[in-house]
Write a structure and sequence with these properties.
mainly alpha, Butyryl-CoA Dehydrogenase, subunit A, domain 3, about 160 residues, 7 helices
Length: about 160
């Protein structure tokens, strides 16, 4: 195994779950579609790994590829994409706390899907636990503006989830 293959394997192991969660947010929780997009992202990482110039951290580079790929996927499938309607979410029984959690997650994904592309990227990166500075680097918006947007996005999501 050469050094590029070894580095790719390490990156895949370290970042797969994070990229998958980010993709889930973009595709409103559709597991199969998220896996497809995640695979596409890792193909791009493999194809471009030898050209990475270390001008940013490797994780920032991976997130940038991930966000761009997810946005590109959304644009190409926007006309044929299905939306999650609240009527499609199954009724929750008091006896099944896991079902209630799944319902809340479905509502959150539905509300995230309503955000603009940039705001969706920001909140999904926040949910991944990235520092505001790194989000700023990935999105290309000043740090202070990111902090303000995060606050507004959280208010929007709270309002959306509570009014559904």
């Amino acid at each position: 195994m050469n050094s590029i293959e070894k580095k790719y394997k390490e990156l895949y192991t370290a970042h797969y779950a994070k990229v998958m969660r980010l993709c889930l947010g973009y595709v409103a929780g559709d597991q199969d579609l998220a896996k497809d997009v995640t695979q596409e992202i890792f193909i791009k990482i493999w194809e471009n790994l030898e050209y990475f110039r270390n001008e940013s951290s490797i994780s920032t580079w991976i997130y940038r590829i991930s966000v761009n790929t997810c946005l590109s996927n959304l644009r190409t499938t926007k006309k044929s994409s299905r939306t999650i309607a609240i009527a499609d979410v199954p009724e929750i029984s008091e006896e099944h706390p896991d079902a209630d959690k799944a319902h809340q997650l479905a509502l959150l994904y539905a509300c995230i899907k309503k955000l603009s592309e940039t705001n969706r990227a920001i909140i999904l990166l926040v949910l991944e636990g990235l520092p505001h500075k790194e989000i700023s680097d990935i999105i290309g918006i000043k740090h202070d503006a990111i902090r303000t947007r995060i606050h507004r996005i959280k208010m929007q999501l709270t309002k959306c989830v509570s009014h559904v």
